[in-house]
Amino acid sequence: MNTIALPQPYLLFLGDTTEPGYAKTAFGLRDWAPERCIGEFSVPGATVTTGLPFLTPAQAASAGAKAMVIGVANAGGFIPPAWLDALVEAMEAGLDLIGGMHARLRDFPRLRETAERLGRRLIDIRIPPERIPVATGKARTGRRLLTIGTDCALGKKYTALSLARAFQSRGVDATFRATGQTGILIAGGGIPMDAVVADFAAGAAELLTPDAAPSHWDVIEGQGSLHHPAYAGVSLALLHGSQPDVIVVCHEPGRDRVLGHPDYPVPGLRETIELALRLGARTSPRIRCAGISLNTGKLDADEAARVIAAESERIGLPVADPIRGGDAFDRLVASCLA
Amino acid sequence: MNTIALPQPYLLFLGDTTEPGYAKTAFGLRDWAPERCIGEFSVPGATVTTGLPFLTPAQAASAGAKAMVIGVANAGGFIPPAWLDALVEAMEAGLDLIGGMHARLRDFPRLRETAERLGRRLIDIRIPPERIPVATGKARTGRRLLTIGTDCALGKKYTALSLARAFQSRGVDATFRATGQTGILIAGGGIPMDAVVADFAAGAAELLTPDAAPSHWDVIEGQGSLHHPAYAGVSLALLHGSQPDVIVVCHEPGRDRVLGHPDYPVPGLRETIELALRLGARTSPRIRCAGISLNTGKLDADEAARVIAAESERIGLPVADPIRGGDAFDRLVASCLA
């Protein structure tokens, strides 16, 4: 399986982004690999910030940065022309470039020529491994947990990372399995699920979560949503291929419309649980939902506690915000391991 | 959108295939483009035949063939070493090669060198168009029908071709939309859905079935099955992206286990209809099932008539075998257009 050794520490590049939901790569690195992030850089027009110091590429290189990570994604994963000058500036300052979009850095002649001239590397972490097999659907040893979303960009990766850490802190042998660019940057390996050719997507999920010791847990980063008008196929392939024993459904209270698709309502929690269990049972007959992970980042502590308690009462399962932790999160972890 | 102009007529290559289900490309060309097929060729061990005359590549070239089509697929779409001598022989006889597998002809050095030396073309029809957009989920004008399978290789393409012809014969403006290699060979264009990167699969289905006149029908070839352990993600992306007004569910009576995945039962018709309508309603709220297409090729005429009548009674919808036609098929067509 492809694993990647990346030049570190990073300067995080935010482009001209105004939508925080598109900067989840940068936020994820700040939160989960802070020791690898020394600052952020963006171009005029950007309003999103990670809170890290703003450094020019030259300042970052002086401070020890080895690479600039493109820490934002836009719909479709393209590199807008407005970013190119900044990417060239980074290479001229001595930094390699790391990209996780569908558009490959190496496909931009100006970037390729600059990299060749200066001896810099263009590292695309969204290129899947070669020769992924078709899924077999055969049962595997070991235990698996998959995070399932009601939408994109609302906490599936955070939840998986939090649960993997919590499992480990309780002495449970657990591995975080990354399926997207940020997760791969954090974990140092994985498979970029959404870049796999559709026929092999379930096979990629099987490859990512192989046979393991009976007590071992793979904690798998979910992708997309089974209700998403563009990405549901990816979500279903990941669900079928990962054969989870346990799912945890991830939601953001107040997210009423699908990000980038305002004609589409976000599905309810019960509907999401029921559909995921029904579809997941095809390859994992004993699949169960251990609880709900709520992203309460836009609520204050009192509101968050109220929403968490109310949803737990309404759904009848443990509900927690992993970022807030606490007793609620302990109950969610216990439910996963039960 | 990519369309392809292929050298014709074809010699159909059957490899060393013993499983008829894997030779659907060859059977489809024989049945739907007979004027383009002058014979078949295979290597020792093959037991599958199209019934066309067996011709060596040299005999086929003398008879006017311009290309040899690899008319079989194996699980995963690879080219086994046992086929390579035959492919080289075809080029030496003067034929171009047309392939529709995931493995690209051009990736085999021996084939590439032979083609370059002899001035032959290696044509891979499974390469999707460049720059497929992410699906928008927005409603489009015109009407759409998608065939939905209970498994692979049981008649989704045949059904779509039959319905498109039947619509046209009734004066309805209809276009067959191909999503796989055989359909593309027959139609001369389309998008190889299973070769699209997973994130763009629903977008590819939108691209394949664009805005059209309100009375126009796109009749879309389905792929895989929503219950398939390896390919359900492709099927769901195609369902979401094609936004069908009407589905027709395709099944083979007696097919109890998923082809190539004997641990998996084939789902029932009611279950398949219900799941497809539920999932499809996400992007096409008024989706309905017009009826069932049964592949009764393994039954005699009396058995077929009995099964068709019994299933129609049981399900409460028109049921027909498009290959057998008759009143039952007329009722299915009328139900689609109702």
TrEMBL record, chains A, B:
Query: What stretch or stretches form a coiled coil here?
Result: none
Q: Which Pfam families match?
A: DUF1611, DUF1611_N
Q: In this protein, which residues make up the domain named D-glutamate N-acetyltransferase-like C-terminal?
A: 134-326
Q: Which Gene3D superfamilies match?
A: NAD(P)-binding Rossmann-like Domain (3.40.50.720), P-loop containing nucleotide triphosphate hydrolases (3.40.50.300)
- The signal peptide annotation in the UniProt record is none
Q: Where is the D-glutamate N-acetyltransferase-like N-terminal domain?
A: 50-128
Which domain of life does the UniProt lineage start with?
A: Bacteria
Entry's PANTHER family? DUF1611 DOMAIN-CONTAINING PROTEIN, GLL3100 PROTEIN
The name under which this protein is listed is DUF1611 domain-containing protein
